[in-house]
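agent> fetching stored inputs for the S-adenosylmethionine docking request
agent> found them:
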Amino acid sequence: MNKTEKIKKASIDEFGSRNTQEQYTKIARKGLWKSEDILIKKYFEPNSRILDIGCGSGRTTLVLSERGFGVIGVDLTPGMIETAKKVALEKGISVDFRMGDATELEFEDNYFSGAIFANNGWVQIPGYANRLKALEEIRRVLKPGSHFILTAHQRYYAGSYFFFWIKQWFKFYILRPLGFGFEELEFGNWFFERNYSDNWQRRWQFIHFTSQKEMEEIIAKSGFTIASRKRMGELSKEDAEVMQGSMTKDFDSFKSPVFYVCLK
Ligand SMILES: C[S@@+](CC[C@H](N)C(=O)[O-])C[C@H]1O[C@@H](n2cnc3c(N)ncnc32)[C@H](O)[C@@H]1O
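agent> prediction call returned; pasting tokens
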């Protein structure tokens, strides 16, 4: 198993762990963020077929289904799909939830009229080549003229993050060329631990922090064009204030995550 595969496996294990699943059972009932709601109303054709990729426990999938979209929820973590199915059953709604990998989608070309990768799931794919493959796959299964909404955490250098990225820069551009090895694959990678109150099982989770330039380049390379780019605080002040999509209490949700709407 290479390094990328190891990170992917550890990430699935963490997402499937007891505490994270308990957390995601609650998250499933939270519904759409205001920012997501704004973009979905603007960019998804009513009643059309939507791919909710990295759907997790179905937070967005369940709402899209209730609103009349023909939505399919796909996720890499078996525990997420089990939880999503359980919550759908409790709510008495029938939703198509399936296991699957964004980098290798089972659907035919031009199948969906819209797609969403909500709450920074795409930046949790380890390795540039895999993130590019996921964008290409999502584009492949979309009809021409349709939109894909994704969020990505933005690398910024304010407050304590300044020292964190300086340290990472030093590791990558000074120590690595000298032969030192690190668990990170690329500059921008971050392994964070979930802050569980019962501390039953603390495990790290992978995330890649992007720059605007990197996002613009990878989106263009996949064949999409950017229809809109907005920081969370620009879309919804309220979401930013309640830390939707944030990582820690001192994280600036006005700056990050950033919503990209990609057009095929
Ligand atoms: C932060 S969670 C967000 C879940 C959900 N979208 C939400 O907003 O509540 C990210 C999800 O992306 C999934 N994921 C990560 N890599 C994936 C991949 N390559 N294909 C499909 N799902 C993936 C994870 O299993 C996890 O459920």
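agent> quick read of the result: Residues 15, 27, 53-56, 59-60, 75-77, 80, 101-103, 118-121, 124-125, 134 surround S-adenosylmethionine (CB under 6 Å).
agent> awaiting further instructions
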